[in-house]
Specification:
The chain is of the alpha/beta class and 506 residues long. Helix content is 22%, strand content 18%. It has helices spanning 2-12, 20-23, 40-54, 96-108, 167-172, 186-201, 217-225, 271-280, 313-316, 325-337, 389-400; strands at 30-35, 56-61, 112-117, 206-209, 243-246, 266-269, 304-306, 342-347, 360-361, 365-366, 406-411, 416-421, 425-430, 436-441, 447-450, 457-458, 461-462, 466-469, 474-479, 487-491, 497-499. The chain has an 8-stranded parallel β-barrel with strand order 1-2-3-4-5-6-7-8, surrounded by 6 helices. The longest helix has 16 residues, at 186-201. Residues 1-17 have low confidence and may be disordered.
Length: 506
């Protein structure tokens, strides 16, 4: 009884933090989408035609700095974007003029741009030595005239990372053979600051710092201190610092921990993907999600960038991806329904070879996604998970429930759970081998609601299931064990609420 009371109080106490002042997303928006390897023009179009109307808050773009051109097995591998030749803004995604057009158009419709920045290293050794902006390099001499960097700007002696339990080795040696910059040197700091401030001047709202774990926190601190505030010409308020989130891979039992970096900005919480993968594959019971977040040993909510998969883990880790549709959509739905962290969803292209680069003509020029009549953009090799109904509808759910906590938790002691977000939204999951068929307290006002997972609202009807909430806030909830999706969700927003009783006195 006492333990149950404590758990109930913990759940009721989980109230979402207002991240908007930090991320610079609009108050009625949430969720970053990683449009991996998209062209700048296509991102600008997507901001206007889909992301803004559907309530997405921002876009993480692929690295905008000049990268080494790599041809391998007749293709351009995705990882060439992470092998830097200079900080010139020219890649297969576009040039500086197209970059500026993207930030202007996306900011104009309230969608923020977060640039993936690679400053831990330059390139590895490669037979080719020309970058996407025409810069050349002499790898044996550590010479990158496009910046310029020379041998003195890198860590010496040269070494590869062999022991991740040695923090100095992780930060001073080469990550997978990539030439490791020495950010302790003032000249290197100046060049990085100059690059970051150029992006800020061009209208980005923040930076995703690649391989932050491989740089010393004190060096990053000195760099961040010199950054300009956001450019007010793009609609940002005065004196607004850029949103910083840092790639710090941590699964436990390593000397380098996320809390070394949370003083500087947010961190990417990789354990969200691994833990939710175990749960939604049925390896860990749904009921244990009752204290999701810090209760699972994860980073504090107001420092965590959360995600199920990213461009790295969907290739090299055992996490849920687009290949396991049902479990993947369930895990993302839980992440978006729960107040823990600042969420990011992945938007991918199909690959059978994990090194394959984006869809392109003759493996050179990136081709644009095809937009279909049903709002998907599957075609030309693109997957566009952010356009899956079960995902963008949960972005709308998250927007509607902002400012509320987890309430009305219910579980069957195993793999059926449900909870509300205050009096604004309700979600249920069934991962059992039997139907979920229960009368549950939803927390919502009485009325008729469209389940946003099985369909959408069309006029005064639902294309999917309809849920009727009674005067006492309860509703009959049915999720068959063999349903296409394992979850059901309703909320008070116009996408879901068909009818609501008029307030008293009206």
């Amino acid at each position: 009884m006492y333990l149950t009371l404590l758990i109930g109080l913990f759940v009721l106490g989980q109230v979402t933090c207002d991240h908007h002042s930090r991320t610079h997303q609009l108050p009625d928006r949430s969720t970053i989408v990683h449009l991996f390897e998209w062209k700048w023009k296509d991102i600008a179009d997507e901001c206007e035609r889909f992301l803004a109307p559907m309530g997405y808050g921002g876009v993480q773009i692929s690295p905008p700095s000049e990268n080494l051109i790599i041809h391998k097995d007749g293709q351009r591998p995705w990882y060439e974007r992470y092998q830097v030749m200079s900080y010139k803004l020219k890649t297969r995604s576009g040039d500086e003029e197209q970059f500026l057009d993207m930030t202007r158009r996306c900011n104009a419709v309230g969608v923020r741009i977060y640039a993936d920045v690679v400053v831990n290293h330059m390139t590895g050794d490669n037979p080719e030595h020309v970058g996407t902006a025409g810069s050349e390099a002499d790898f044996s001499e550590h010479s990158y005239p496009g910046v310029p960097y020379t041998r003195e700007h890198f860590h010496h002696p040269y070494c590869g990372i062999g022991n991740y339990n040695n923090a100095t080795e992780v930060r001073d040696c080469e990550l997978v053979g990539l030439k490791d910059l020495n950010q302790t040197k003032e000249y290197v700091r100046d060049k990085i600051v100059e690059f970051f401030n150029h992006l800020i001047n061009l209208g980005v709202a923040g930076l995703r710092v690649d391989a932050a774990k491989h740089m010393w926190p004190q060096d990053l601190s000195e760099i961040y201190k010199r950054l300009d505030n956001l450019n007010t010409e793009f609609g940002f308020p005065p004196n607004a610092p850029p949103y910083i989130y840092q790639e710090v891979i941590y699964y436990g039992n390593e000397p380098i921990k996320p809390d070394e970096y949370t003083k500087l900005g947010d961190v990417t919480e990789f354990r969200v993907g691994t833990e939710l993968t175990r749960v939604f594959r049925g390896q860990n019971a749904l009921k244990w999600l009752v204290n999701w977040g810090e209760g699972w040993g994860l980073s504090p909510s107001d420092t965590a960038l959360t995600f199920v998969d990213n461009h790295d883990t969907q290739r090299d880790s055992d996490v849920l991806t687009f290949r396991e549709h049902r479990a993947y959509k369930g895990a993302i739905a839980f992440m978006l329904a729960h107040p823990y962290g600042e969420p990011r969803v992945m938007s991918s292209y199909y690959f059978s070879n994990k090194e394959r680069g984006p869809p392109s003509d003759n493996q050179e020029n990136i081709i644009s996604p095809i937009i279909n009549y049903d709002n998907t953009c599957a075609g030309n090799g693109w997957l566009c998970e952010h356009r899956w109904r079960q995902i963008y509808q949960m972005v709308a759910f998250r927007n509607q429930v902002r400012g509320t906590g987890v309430e009305n938790w219910w579980d069957n002691g195993h793999n059926q759970i449900a909870f509300s977000r205050g009096d604004k939204g309700f979600i249920a999951f069934n991962l059992d081998d039997k139907d979920l068929n229960q009368t549950l307290k939803t927390g919502l006002p009485a009325g008729r609601y469209c389940d946003i997972i099985t369909g959408t609202r069309k006029g005064d009807k639902c294309t999917g299931s309809t849920v009727t909430v009674q005067e006492d806030g309860k509703a009959d909830i049915l999720i068959p064990d063999n349903s296409e999706d394992m979850h059901l969700a309703i909320h008070v927003g116009p996408q879901s609420a068909l009818s609501r009783p008029a307030p008293e006195g009206k």
